[in-house]
Structure formats: C-alpha cells, structure tokens
Amino acid sequence: MGQKVNPRGFRLAVRRDWDSRWYANKADYSKFLAEDYRIREFLREKLKGASVPKIFIERAGQRIRVKIYTARPGVVIGQKGALLEQLKADLAKYIGKDVLVDIQEVKKPDLVAYLVAESVALQLERRISFRRAIKKAITQTMALGAMGIKIQISGRLGGAEIARTEWQRKGRIPLQTLRENIDYGFTEAHTLYGKIGVKCWLCLKPEDVL
C-alpha cells in the first residue's frame, strides 16, 4: 500500500517552516498544541469568506501573537478596523488569554495551493462542472508563472452514485525532490450529495514562498 505523507510536513527543516513558534515543557506541550488547534478552527470559522491560507501562532510567556495571512484584508479589518477589534475581543474571550492579532496580505492568491483548492471547492458548491473548475484554476495559476500544478478531487463527482477520484496536471511536480518549492493545500466542498475533497500541489519558483 502507498504510504502517504503531508507534502508540507515532509519538507520541514529543508524547504518549509512550522506554522507555530514556541517552546513548552512536557507538562504544557499538549495544552498549547490543543490551544493552537482551537485558535485555528475558531479563526477559520469566523473568516470563512476571507481567503485565509495560513495562520501563524507565536507565544512569549502568557501572551499569544497570531498572524493571519489573507488575500482579502479588507474583509478581516473592516471599516476603520472595527471587525479586527471585534475579532480580537472574541478570540481573547474564547481562549481566555491576551491575544495580539496581525494581518498579512497575500499578494498572489493564485500561487497559494490552499487558495487554489478553496476556489475549486467554492465552484463545486455552486454546481459548476468539476472539469471546468479544475481547468480554469490550472490556466490561471500557470499564467501567473507557476512551474507546475496538480489538482485532485475525490467524492461523488457530478452527483454520481459511486465516488471516484479525478485529477489533472500541467507542468512539473517533482514530489520526491525536497529542495523544490512545493506548496500543498487541501479543503472540502460541501455539496448536496456529500463532501468532495480537493487537493492541490503547486511547484513554484524559489522566491514564491508564503
């Protein structure tokens, strides 16, 4: 059987870095890890339409710093920063700790694997043909200078009774070469006939790192 490994975790310490930065002793480690998970789940739920591919968490003492990467900063910040202040207050109340929130804009959303997968998933939810959605995403990404892209979707495609997997690739995706700049994203489309998983692999130029 094929042994699957997350392409981002596979490249840690070679091409990628962790999405959290903190140190904890044995007693606190599991508590901090669970807290990071809860923060990310809370923010993803709150910022569903804001195109958020990455949430970076940093800790210093009791203070938590959260950096939200988003392709639509206006949706997160709101008019005169009102939505951002509300988000900070809600997050602090949810986890019971002082939280600093920073916003980082993603300049090229079509070169971020998670956002490409999310765009395909949104089109599937709007009942657009899966082949057309994949083809459009591949064309847009390659036009912006990606070296290669592969998109794979699995589930009851087109409402079929039997679930299946379809994929399309363009350019080069050398997944065994650890020094290559490979970005990976996964999300799910919630359709009337069930969930459809969407995976995206991008081979980018060395400088295109989120």
Automatic annotation (TrEMBL):
InterPro entries assigned: KH_dom, KH_dom-like_a/b, KH_dom_type_2, KH_sf_prok-type, Ribosomal_S3_C_sf, Ribosomal_uS3, Ribosomal_uS3_bac-typ, Ribosomal_uS3_C
Transmembrane segments: none
UniProt xrefs under SUPFAM superfamilies: Prokaryotic type KH domain (KH-domain type II), Ribosomal protein S3 C-terminal domain
KH type-2 domain span: 39-107
Coiled coil: none
Gene Ontology cellular component annotations, sorted alphabetically: ribosome
Assigned keywords, A-Z: Ribonucleoprotein, Ribosomal protein, RNA-binding, rRNA-binding
SMART domains for the chain: KH
Iron among keywords: no
Keyword RNA-binding belongs to the record: yes
Pfam families: KH_2, Ribosomal_S3_C
Family: Belongs to the universal ribosomal protein uS3 family.
Function: Binds the lower part of the 30S subunit head. Binds mRNA in the 70S ribosome, positioning it for translation.
NCBIfam families given in the database record: rpsC_bact
Subunit and interaction comment: Part of the 30S ribosomal subunit. Forms a tight complex with proteins S10 and S14.
UniProt protein name: Small ribosomal subunit protein uS3
Organism the protein comes from: Intestinicryptomonas porci
